[in-house]
TrEMBL record:
<protein>
    <submittedName>
        <fullName>Dehydrogenase</fullName>
    </submittedName>
</protein>
<dbReference type="GO" id="GO:0016491">
    <property type="term" value="F:oxidoreductase activity"/>
</dbReference>
<keyword id="KW-0560">Oxidoreductase</keyword>
<comment type="similarity">
    <text>Belongs to the short-chain dehydrogenases/reductases (SDR) family.</text>
</comment>
<dbReference type="InterPro" id="IPR002347">
    <property type="entry name" value="SDR_fam"/>
</dbReference>
<dbReference type="InterPro" id="IPR020904">
    <property type="entry name" value="Sc_DH/Rdtase_CS"/>
</dbReference>
<dbReference type="Pfam" id="PF13561">
    <property type="entry name" value="adh_short_C2"/>
</dbReference>
<dbReference type="InterPro" id="IPR036291">
    <property type="entry name" value="NAD(P)-bd_dom_sf"/>
</dbReference>
């Protein structure tokens, strides 16, 4: 179905669990050489081993998305092993539930450094490799909260809105290089990060998760595979006329 993806190489940040691991497994099953990166080395290596055991191609590399050196090393390793980098999935992220007046400098720097600056550093590292490959597809993971905002998530909303903005700018800038850049904006997804978020939500008096779910036209949590299905479309030739888009997968919340 997605024959054009066979033998391409995808670099995925935050690939050790949750959405990132789902993306890695599906792309590998479609014949993509998958380079999984994360700071959770044991989990990431296990995902890569699982993929290889299934007869597919995967490599795990340690990568802190805040480190330009780590990004440069990952791109170099991917090109050396597989010959190119054709796909970038900027998936790594952290969530914080804090309003402006309760957000520390350290927490602000962390969420911006990972969620937004990490996306910038990833694209900056990969774009020259994609030029060498004759083009590529980049998918950045934003959030529905980066499109509409929400109560008490100041740093997180700012970071994800920034991801949407840099996606649009890069799409315009690199279309002539045959590099397409899009973003996915999910609502809540059933991942370990959501489990962690629910714990810290208790400290956010502005946001009630149950009310948030009930407000969605499709009032349930998304499954990682549902995000992956959209991602596969966006990195394949089926979306070859799509660039600069921010694609919600949100149970219809943005329609209201």
């Amino acid at each position: 179905m997605f024959e054009d993806l066979a033998n391409k190489t995808a670099l995925i940040s935050g690939g050790a669990r949750g959405q990132g691991a789902s993306h890695a497994r599906e792309l590998a099953a479609l014949g993509v050489n998958v380079v999984i990166t994360d700071i959770r080395d044991e989990l990431g290596a296990a995902v890569a081993e699982e993929i290889v055991s299934a007869g597919q191609k995967a490599t795990y590399l340690h990568l802190d998305v805040r480190s330009s050196a780590d990004w440069a090393s990952a791109v170099e390793a991917a090109e050396k092993q597989y010959g190119s980098v054709d796909i970038l999935v900027n998936n790594a992220g952290v969530v914080q539930c804090a309003p402006v007046d309760l957000l520390s400098d350290e927490d602000w720097d962390e969420v911006i450094g990972i969620n937004l600056a990490g996306v910038f550093r990833g694209m900056r590292a990969v774009i020259p490799a994609m030029r060498r490959a004759g083009g590529g597809a980049i998918v950045n993971i934003s959030s529905v909260f980066g499109v509409k905002g929400t109560w008490g998530y100041a740093g997180y909303v700012a970071s994800k809105a920034g991801v949407a903005g840099i996606t649009k700018s890069a799409a315009l800038t690199y279309a002539a290089d045959n590099i397409r850049v899009n973003a996915i904006a999910p609502s809540s997804v059933d991942t370990p990060m959501l489990d962690e978020e629910k714990v810290i939500m208790a400290e956010n008096p502005y946001f009630d998760f149950d009310e948030w779910m009930a407000s969605q036209p499709i009032p349930r949590i998304a499954q990682p595979q549902e995000v992956t299905d959209l991602l596969v479309y966006l990195v394949s030739d089926r979306s070859r006329y799509c660039t600069g888009g921010i694609y919600p997968i949100d149970g219809g919340i943005l329609a209201g």
